[in-house]
């Protein structure tokens, strides 16, 4: 499969959580409206919703991502960075959503501020792709070893976090984790 055939939404407003969800699912499932509905369900009594930007531009939190995945029969498993990515049972993982630091810019001017950004990584036709919505298109990472290297490099940054996107039964039985010590 060519990179042109890999589904990839590009960044708009502060909707990186929605883009990461759609990119990891490889189809446009979620919109700003569906994410806002999830926010209302998560905090129905709140005038100012704690799960999104007060400006209405997105900036959704992990609770929105988790609820969205649950609506599709999937689960988000928070990866313990003390573990080696060698312990991942990749054939049980649907994809990855990472939360990484991101520079803030106004046009071409980069500001000395850092925000949080959600991005997706997913296997498509036997190759893993970085589906970051800030990229011009999908970037092929390669096979399993290249993926493990990529994830290790990302997780070596203190503030990067990773969610494993798995089927609900995989979350329940823990088979996303390879417990063999020699891996």
Automatic annotation (TrEMBL):
<keyword id="KW-0963">Cytoplasm</keyword>
<dbReference type="GO" id="GO:0016579">
    <property type="term" value="P:protein deubiquitination"/>
</dbReference>
<comment type="function">
    <text>Cleaves 'Lys-63'-linked poly-ubiquitin chains, and with lesser efficiency 'Lys-48'-linked poly-ubiquitin chains (in vitro). May act as a deubiquitinating enzyme.</text>
</comment>
<dbReference type="GO" id="GO:0006508">
    <property type="term" value="P:proteolysis"/>
</dbReference>
<dbReference type="GO" id="GO:0004843">
    <property type="term" value="F:cysteine-type deubiquitinase activity"/>
</dbReference>
<dbReference type="InterPro" id="IPR006155">
    <property type="entry name" value="Josephin"/>
</dbReference>
<feature type="active site">
    <location>
        <position position="132"/>
    </location>
</feature>
<feature type="active site">
    <location>
        <position position="16"/>
    </location>
</feature>
<keyword id="KW-0833">Ubl conjugation pathway</keyword>
<dbReference type="Pfam" id="PF02099">
    <property type="entry name" value="Josephin"/>
</dbReference>
<dbReference type="GO" id="GO:0005829">
    <property type="term" value="C:cytosol"/>
</dbReference>
<feature type="domain" description="Josephin">
    <location>
        <begin position="3"/>
        <end position="180"/>
    </location>
</feature>
<keyword id="KW-0378">Hydrolase</keyword>
<keyword id="KW-0645">Protease</keyword>
<dbReference type="InterPro" id="IPR040053">
    <property type="entry name" value="JOSD1/2"/>
</dbReference>
<feature type="active site">
    <location>
        <position position="117"/>
    </location>
</feature>
<protein>
    <recommendedName>
        <fullName>Josephin-2</fullName>
        <ecNumber>3.4.19.12</ecNumber>
    </recommendedName>
</protein>
């Amino acid at each position: 499969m060519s990179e042109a055939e890999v589904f990839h939404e590009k960044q708009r407003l502060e909707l990186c959580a929605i883009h990461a969800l759609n990119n990891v699912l490889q189809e446009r499932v979620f919109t700003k409206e569906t994410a806002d509905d999830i926010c209302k369900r998560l905090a129905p009594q709140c005038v100012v919703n704690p799960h999104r930007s007060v400006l209405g531009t997105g900036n959704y939190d992990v609770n929105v991502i988790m609820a969205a995945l649950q609506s599709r029969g999937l689960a988000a498993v928070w990866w313990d960075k003390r573990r080696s990515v060698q312990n991942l049972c990749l054939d049980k993982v649907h994809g990855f959503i990472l939360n990484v630091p991101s520079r803030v810019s106004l046009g071409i001017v980069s500001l000395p501020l850092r925000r949080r950004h959600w991005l997706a990584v997913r296997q498509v036709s036997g190759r893993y792709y970085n589906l970051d919505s800030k990229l011009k298109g999908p970037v092929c990472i390669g096979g399993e070893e290249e993926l493990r290297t990529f994830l290790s490099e990302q997780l070596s940054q203190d503030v990067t976090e990773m969610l494993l996107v798995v089927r609900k039964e995989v979350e329940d039985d823990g088979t996303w984790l390879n417990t063999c010590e020699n891996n």
